[in-house]
Amino acid sequence: MLCEADYAAAVEALTGLCGVGIKVANCVSLFGLHHTDAFPVDVWMKRILTQYYPDGYPYDRYSPYNGIYQQFMFAWYRHAQK
After folding, report:
1. Of 17, 29, 34, 47, whose CB count within 10 A is highest?
2. The predicted structure's pLDDT at residue 1
3. What is the pTM of this model?
4. Which of 23, 27, 45, 74 is catalytic?
């Protein structure tokens, strides 16, 4: 059952569905399944990662809370753009 799957298994199962890509699978994992390490990357996150993490985002450093950090980065960046 998907709600009992770990993060990797959930993403694999979700991306196996027609029309579900990695971004949506990560959104479902983070917001629906509460996998706090899920890290959805949309156009806004691509901008943040390019601008502030040119050498790559340190996923290992922030694990298992990458999804929480992603939400703060997204909210901060969107607010700062106004």
Report:
1. 29
2. 87
3. 0.89
4. 23
